[in-house]
Amino acid sequence: MSSPKAIEKRIFEDLLGMASCYVLDCSNSTVADSFRYAVIKETGKYLPKQVVDLMKAEGYPRFSIHYHTQLWQSQDARNPANGYGTLVAGKAWHWYERWVDVVREHCRDNEEKYS
């Protein structure tokens, strides 16, 4: 069986409540076996400034904390149901890699604005 598609991995992640993890590989032919052989990796956590710095390093120098704030507010990204991040120690919001992917896609879609 071939490796699972991105949507199939997302389904596994959602079913298993894996907001801070993601499925790397499933290497068996049945769903039950796929669950048993799933390789799971914990994702990194990023502070808002780190997300902005990543986008700047990827070629979007005009992307700022202001635009990041506008984006997460427009997406309701701090809603725990979305699985984009978590509040750490009741103080600081940390973003998961899943959110960084959303921001990256947003920057690509608005390249003229942020380049």
Structure, explained:
With 115 residues, this protein is of the alpha+beta class. The protein has two domains: 6-42, no CATH class; 45-114, no CATH class. 47% of the residues lie in helices and 17% in strands. The protein has helices spanning 6-15, 31-37, 48-57, 65-74, 97-109, 111-114, and strands at 21-25, 39-42, 45-46, 85-88, 92-96. The strands form two sheets. It has a three-stranded antiparallel β-sheet with strand order 3-5-4. It has a two-stranded antiparallel ribbon with strand order 1-2. The model is unreliable at 35-42 (pLDDT under 50). InterPro entries: Sulfatase_CS.
Which short descriptors sum up this protein?
single chain; alpha+beta; globular; 115 residues
Architecture blueprint of SSEs:
Blueprint: H1 6-15, E1 21-25, H2 31-37, E2 39-42, E3 45-46, H3 48-57, H4 65-74, E4 85-88, E5 92-96, H5 97-109, H6 111-114
Antiparallel strand pairs: 1-2, 3-5, 4-5
Return the domain count.
2
Q: Could you tell me how far the N terminus lies from the C terminus, measured between alpha carbons in angstroms?
A: 41 Å
How many DSSP H or I helices? 6
Structural class: alpha+beta
User: Which residue ranges are poorly predicted, with pLDDT under 50 across at least 5 consecutive positions?
Assistant: 35-42
Task: Write the element-wise H/E pattern from the N-terminal end onward.
Answer: HEHEEHHEEHH
Radius of gyration: 16 Å
- Order of adjacent strands in the largest pleated sheet: 3-5-4
Mean pLDDT: 80
What is the helix fraction of residues, given as a range? Answer: 40-55%
Beta-strand percentage?
15-25%
